[in-house]
Amino acid sequence: MLCANKRHKKKAKYMSQETLIKAQHLSRHFGPTVAVNNIEFELHRGEIVGFLGPNGAGKSTSMQMITGNLAPTTGSVQVCGIDLLDKPKQAKAHIGYLPEQPPVYKELTVNEYLKFCARINRMDKINVSAAVDNAKQRCGLTKVGQRLIGNLSKGYQQRVGIAQAIIHSPAIIVLDEPTVGLDPIQIREIRSLIRELGEEHGVILSTHILPEVQMTCDRVQIIRSGELVYQDSMENLTQQFHGSCAVIGLGEEIAEDKISALPAVASVERLAPKRWRLLFEDNTDPVQQVAKQIVDNGWGLTELVPEQKSLEDIFLDITTSEEEHSPAEDDAA
Q1: Which CATH number does 243-307 carry?
Q2: φ and ψ at 172, to 5 degrees?
Q3: Are strands 172-176 and 95-98 parallel, antiparallel or unpaired?
Q4: Neighbours of 174 (CB within 10 A)
Q5: H-helix or E-strand containing 204?
């Protein structure tokens, strides 16, 4: 994670403030079911935004509205300053989209398919060959141009799907679950490609896979039951939960109520005799105060190990609520 944080800091220096997407009050209803409810966010050039949420949270529905494949019930989407609903053709020309199921024609060769994609994106004939060569080079497809797509591995078919999304050099690239079903080597290659694309374009990565966001994204948005419940940079997300837990070992057995009375302790968990895990209140890091009070009380401090929540812990904290939503809502989103 340290390397990822360094990469995010370095990239932030070069990130443009040019707004590529601005979604406002975006909602989608399917009959009485609210799949997406009043979400708002922006995407800037040079950043990769992770759109994170459990299955059925509304990620794909949101992506379909942002790319103009599904009309919102309410709200608006500006794409490079163009209203997506008023001028859909002009707005969509700035978007490259890879759905969860890559829209490839397996009976075509890679070259044939990419030429077809260039034509349906209304590229001038004189520019098609160069665009195909560029997309193949960027996606690592140069050596398989003459092969049938149906004979390629799933990882290469996913690369072809990304190539069709960037064939017309769009400002915005939207990737919906781009590594589902791939093996670890293929996943690493696709992640590397996404990071490269994020240098020049604005990228939205929709996924429920936590390492995907951690390894590739600059900023994260978390959706739950159709509502955007969290937006921040990966760096701030990590720092916000730093030091929120600690494991302590004591020289003698102490009653739980006395442990709970230590500074800023929200809850305690007994791990073993004389050993406890302390969960601190939000946005606090009272480890030094806790250590001092234990020593002052003469309890015999034998262990003190600050812990940092994993991204999985943070994700569960944000996406888990006391009131469970119905399976029907999940399926609709």
Answers
A1: 3.30.70.100
A2: -120, 135
A3: parallel
A4: 27
A5: strand 202-207
What the block records as the tokens of 330 is: 């999940």
Report the alpha-carbon distance of residue 106 to residue 102 in Å, rounded. Answer: 11
Burial (CB < 10 A; 0-12, 13-18, 19+), residue 290, is: buried
**Looking at residue 10, what is its pLDDT?**
43
Choose among 196, 270, 251: nearest CA to 48: 196
pLDDT, residue 98, reads 93
What span, in angstroms and rounded, lies between the C-alpha atoms of 71 and 66? 9
- Strands 245-250, 275-280: pairing kind: antiparallel
The single-letter code of the amino acid at 216 is T
We find that the CATH architecture of domain 2-239 is 3-Layer(aba) Sandwich (3.40)
d(CA 152, CA 158): 10
- In sign, the C-alpha dihedral spanning 142, 147, 149, 152 is negative
Q: Which two tokens mark 82? A: 């163009």
- Per the CB < 8 A criterion, the answer to whether 162 and 154 are in contact is no
Give residue limits of the domains in the chain.
2-239, 243-307
pLDDT per residue as tens digits for the range 59-102:
989 999 999 999 999 999 999 999 999 999 999 999 999 998 88
Number of CB atoms found within 10 A of residue 245's CB: 19
The 3-state DSSP class for residue 16 equals coil
Cα–Cα distance between 58 and 35 in angstroms, integer? Answer: 6
Length of the chain: 333
Lowest mean pLDDT among 23-32, 172-181, 221-230, 279-288: 279-288
